[in-house]
Write a structure and sequence with these properties.
Shape: globular
Order of helices and strands: EHHEEHHEE
Number of helices: 4
Low-confidence stretches: none
Radius of gyration: 14 Å
Helix content: 25-40%
Distance between the termini: 18 Å
Oligomer: single chain
Mean pLDDT: 93
Structural class: alpha+beta
Length: 112
């Protein structure tokens, strides 16, 4: 049986003075970062920008999302990547997950 992907979406602010730096980083995402995401069952990952808000969407096709997220967080290359991207980001006002920079958003509707 083919497992349907879990759809995940998140938002975060982008620092206006670091907007161009963030966009430049994502024009050339490190191949090892992309490889680790794929190895950890992340598919169709996109980040969109609207003003000073970043919206991320991906589909998770694995069996244990939390374990795969921990694998990504434990990866030295991913952690190094975040030292470049995180300073470009700022938490938004509403905090669904108080410890997270990127805040999860609730799915309202989906057309399949």
């Amino acid at each position: 049986m083919i497992r349907r992907p879990e759809r995940r979406a998140f938002v975060v602010g982008v620092c206006p003075e670091k907007r161009e730096e963030y966009l430049a980083l994502h024009r050339a995402v490190w191949p090892d970062v992309e490889r680790r995401l794929t190895e950890c069952n992340i598919r169709n990952y996109s980040i969109f920008i609207f003003g000073d808000i970043l919206f991320a969407y991906y589909e998770y096709v694995g069996e244990d999302h939390e374990a795969d997220v921990r694998r990504i967080a434990g990866d030295p290359t991913s952690r190094e990547w975040w030292t470049h991207t995180d300073p470009c980001q700022v938490r938004i006002a509403e905090k669904r997950d108080p410890g997270a920079l990127w805040q999860p958003v609730e799915k309202v509707w989906h057309l399949s």
